[in-house]
Amino acid sequence: MKKSLIQLIKFGIVGGINTVLSYLIYLGGLYLGIHYLIASTIGFIITVFISYVLNSLLTFRESGEAIHWSIKALIKVYISYSITGFILGNLLLFIEVDVIKISEMIAPIINLFITIPTNFILNKFWAYKENNINGKVDL
């Protein structure tokens, strides 16, 4: 349980950094006149890669363990973020902005309460699973 809590905190820190960066990219896109869904996509592509690097270094690696860069793990991270951050996030963004008429500046912040926990679960139990000892997850 303690290990998972520490991982969740580290994941949250990495996620916080990426969320701020993604939101700044998103706002920059809006400022440049880019459609909000395209601006969101640009932020997604950039920050998922950064998330992979930071989580590989800080979150899902045992102390002293060598870093194992893996295309397979990177693809799994993009898939998990695609489900939560891209598909779910953009679906929620569309509903909030176009249907409910929430500000396109506020809607991405609301989405974090759904996408972050979902993303942690997918990353911990699937994308980074091979980093766990004997394929088992410490709860």
What would you say this structure looks like, in words?
The protein has 139 residues and is mainly α. It has one domain (2-132). It contains four helices and no strands. The chain has helices at 2-31, 36-59, 71-99, 107-127. The chain starts with a helix and ends in a 12-residue tail after the last helix. The model is unreliable at 131-139 (pLDDT under 50).
Radius of gyration over C-alpha positions, nearest whole angstrom: 16 Å
Number of strands: 0
* Distance between the amino and carboxyl termini: 4 Å
Order of helices and strands: HHHH
Class computed from helices, strands and strand pairing: mainly alpha
Task: Please tell me the overall pLDDT.
Answer: 83
Strand content: under 5%
Question: Quaternary status of these chains?
Answer: single chain
- Overall tally of domains: 1
Number of helices: 4
List the defining traits of the structure above.
139 residues, mainly alpha, disordered C terminus
How would the blueprint of this fold be written?
Elements: H1 2-31, H2 36-59, H3 71-99, H4 107-127
Helix pairs in contact: 1-2, 2-3, 3-4
Offer a quick outline of the entry.
This protein is an all-alpha fold. 75% of the residues lie in helices and 0% in strands.
